[in-house]
Design goal:
It is a single chain. By secondary structure, this protein is mainly α. The chain starts with 6 loop residues before the first helix and ends with a helix. The mean pLDDT is 86. It has helices at residues 7-13, 27-48, 53-63, 75-80, 84-96. The chain is elongated. The protein has one domain (27-96). Helix content is 60%, strand content 0%.
Length: 98
């Protein structure tokens, strides 16, 4: 005897995504979140060490000279994990709220 259950209801019950619908994926959202986290960590490390975090981070972004960033709390290694162009893209998008 054939199974009379509706296959769509069975897919829903089993929590299987409907493969007929287009799924979206954005690598930028994950990367943006990572960049925000890095910037926040670097900012906090600079502040804790008594530096003006904004001035130091601007100096780094303009020159890409890592000595603008303290080694404290691994901040220098963190900031070097992200590309300057990516940081500027995230900053500009956040500033313009787009």
């Amino acid at each position: 005897m054939a199974d009379s259950r509706n296959p769509l209801n069975e897919r829903t019950r089993l929590n299987i995504p409907d493969s007929s619908q287009t799924q979206t994926f954005s690598i930028h959202e994950d990367r943006d979140t990572e960049i925000r986290s890095v910037l926040s960590s670097v900012y906090n490390a600079l502040r804790e060490r008594g530096y003006n975090p904004i001035d130091q981070m601007v100096g780094y972004l303009l020159t890409e000279d890592p000595t603008y960033i303290t080694n404290y709390k691994n901040a220098r290694a963190l900031i070097r994990r992200v590309d300057r162009d990516e940081v500027l893209r995230v900053l500009l998008a956040e500033y313009l709220r787009i």
